[in-house]
Amino acid sequence: MFDISMEDNYIQSISLEYRKKYAQFFPPKQIAKIMAKWLLGNKQMYSVLEPAFGLGVFSKEILTHKKNIKIKGFEIDENIFSVSKNHFNNNQKINLILQDYMYNDWANKYDGIICNPPYFKFHDYDNKNIIKEIEEKLNCRLNGFTNLYTLFLLKSIHQLNKNGRSAYIVPSEFLNSDYGKLVKKHLIKTRTLRHIIVVDFEENVFDDAMTTASIILCANDSNNDKVQFTNIKTVNDLKQIEDIISIYPKRSAQSKTYLIDELDPKIKWKQYYQEQNSIKYKHLVPFSNYAKVSRGIANGANEFFTFNLEKAKKILNKRSVFIAVYMQVCQC
């Protein structure tokens, strides 16, 4: 029997600073269960890949339902690798590898791939070389700001066997960002995208991680003409996702369904899963008619440009004095 407190023990013993350095945040068990269920829907699944293994949250869930399966996991942090290696030491079905998934294993294919990939600012990893690797291997073009978690996703789709399935939980920012346009274009091109579940909980999905989340379900099967979008607000809504997965390849009336060829990678995809208030107004025009917004130099040094509380109070006090003097002058 697996130790259900394994993640809690790790969180308590490893500092938050260290876990942030390696983007070590663990999804809730309910979400891991749903993602595993999507993979298990492939009855011919005999091989599984976890590209960012961590503590094997997903593998434990899969093995609960299907014992006779081979699992390969990649991990780059020696600390968490050692913990997992000791934990799964007696399971001959699990092969853990201390290597960077992005530069390895390209030749292999899998029946199931499941992942909670690392999320970093692009300054904090080998952005240039990894993007070059993906572009060359997949024969695609990507934005220089493309985030690492989407590169994991694109590589995994490439590694799916016939009828293979993948489940990823990632920040949903790429659905509505500039760099996400080329990522979405490739998802449409491969025709593997089946369902996007946007997790819009009031509370954080990950402990200590301030991020939006989406679950991306893909499949390398012949049911490639439609894509569903679902927006869930509470943990109770996860039951709805379980029901949707259970009836696949049938489509659920509870989700918004679009022909994959109708999807436009150049627009923000929130219009596919979120109610748009703009349709209530008849005379709106694009902001681009009047102005252009361009990003400044991004260096990641937020602590340098962000005031601490003490400095912010001083600035506000000075500004209040200036405004008071200005108003008195104006009244004279």
Fold and architecture overview:
There is one protein chain. With 332 residues, this protein is of the alpha/beta class. The chain has a single domain, classed as Rossmann fold (3-Layer(aba) Sandwich), CATH 3.40.50. It has helices at residues 6-13, 16-21, 29-40, 57-65, 78-87, 127-138, 148-158, 180-190, 238-247, 270-273, 302-305, 309-331, and strands at residues 47-50, 70-75, 94-98, 110-115, 160-170, 193-199, 213-219, 226-232, 256-259. The protein has a nine-stranded mixed β-sheet, with helices on both faces. α3 (29-40) crosses α4 (57-65) and α6 runs parallel beside α7. It is globular. The termini are far apart.
**Low-confidence runs of at least 5 consecutive residues:** none
Count of helical regions: 12
What gross morphology would you assign?
globular
- The CATH class turns out to be Alpha Beta
- Quaternary structure: single chain
The whole-number mean of residue pLDDT values reads 87
> Count of DSSP E strands?
9
Rg, rounded, reads 23 Å
- Beta strand %: 15-25%
Domain count: the total is 1
Helix-and-strand structural type: alpha/beta
